[in-house]
Design brief:
By secondary structure, the protein is an alpha+beta fold. The chain has five helices and 14 strands. Helices cover 21% and strands 38% of the residues. α1 packs across α5. The longest helix has 25 residues. It binds zinc ion (ZN). Zinc ion binds next to loops.
Length: 260
Amino acid sequence: MKIEKLSKTKNKSVFLIKGIKNSIANAIRRSVYEIPILAIDSVEFYKNDSALYDEIIAQRLGLIPLKGDLKTFKRQENCSCEGKGCNKCIVSLKLKAKGPGTIYASELKGKGFEVIYPQMPIVVLAQDQELEFVADAKLGMGKEHAKFTPGILWFNAYPTVEISKECNSCGECIKTCPQKAISLQGNKIIIDPNKCDLCGACVEKCNNLKKAIKINASEEDFIFYIETFGQISSEEILIESVNALNENIRELSKKLEKSK
Ligand SMILES: [Zn+2]
């Protein structure tokens, strides 16, 4: 197996992973929903004069991405408090605000967390309207609720490109490609496999003219695209997905061993 980083921006990474099976690539993708992530899980309202019901505000609070210390923090059910809730597994937050004005995520107060997007609006309060609540955030997984998802991971098969002698470099494929993956270098047509998403538009166009382009999807090389919502980095999403997959396999083999 070989891994190559193709690109990296603040919230997105692209990796080429060579020499794995489609089923493994898909298992890694699905394991994103098994990474523990911090999110608000319960809210107790003292005052809510706003136009939104308590449960709508609670729903909006759950979806605010929070950063916590995931290394020292425990899942409530695995914590030494045995699920009762303590400062090792629960982060307490509070908010107290009075209108008029928009109340933003930056107004959430407490220790042990960081609001990743402080400018996310929670609710608009009119003159003298008040909002006051306390809330608990805990670690959960995307398979329990989407608010615990750290980002999205998807993959494409790596394209293998063949351009035959029939090609006369007419350039029609360059105009057709929506990914701008094709260019003319000298008088040769070059397709960048890192940009190609196998849509087949160039093959269709070329079939009407020369039938010079053939593109196939590799069965063992895949391009992984990972976009983070900010709780952990895009590289960590890939690493933690693989760790979660490993953990599940380890648990399965332990149970199989016991049932012998
Ligand atoms: Zn605890």
